[in-house]
Amino acid sequence: GLCGGVPFFYNTEDKTFLCGEASLEELKKWATGGIMKGAHSPVIGELDFNYITDGIYIGTNQCCQTHFDEKLRKEGIEVDFSLEENRVDAPFGVKYYFWIPIANHSAPTMEHLDSASAILDKFVSLGKKIYLHCKNGHGRAPTVMAAYLVKKGKTPEEAIEIIKKQRPTIHLEESQLQALTNYQKNIKS
């Protein structure tokens, strides 16, 4: 299973994967060492999030910049899943943390969509609530969420409709819509 239920840390950039204490040490190291070079300084904005479906929430990166937000913990969310280009989360207080870096306004690769859908699927099947976010929760996070729904049999249009109903502020780029269409073809082939 996922490290046998202990916390773990996976960095898709250099493929480090750590289980248990090691992962917490690693997280602590960068979190206490300040935010990574090149990361944008936290924007003082509102925590803005919406429940979509299957225990998955989409929102802004205000969730987790010094620790995992109390409001989200009260919702029973145990998974922080970031798609930010730079590592800005300090996910203290959350059981699981994932980071798949995707550049702002750009489309996830097939590999991104595949891994992300598998992660969402796994946690949904475990009955865990997930907080999925990019910077504003308008493009990358909805794209990944839509891929998860496409994998479940929805068309990209239906998937986007489901998300938009719960989070009207989403707006996917042309390249992100194209990625979903390609992803659907990939699944079918």
TrEMBL record:
Tyrosine specific protein phosphatases domain location: 110-178
Pfam families xrefs: DSPc (PF00782)
Domain Tyrosine-protein phosphatase: residue ranges: 48-189
Protein name: Uncharacterized protein
Species annotation: Candidatus Nomurabacteria bacterium RIFCSPHIGHO2_01_FULL_42_16
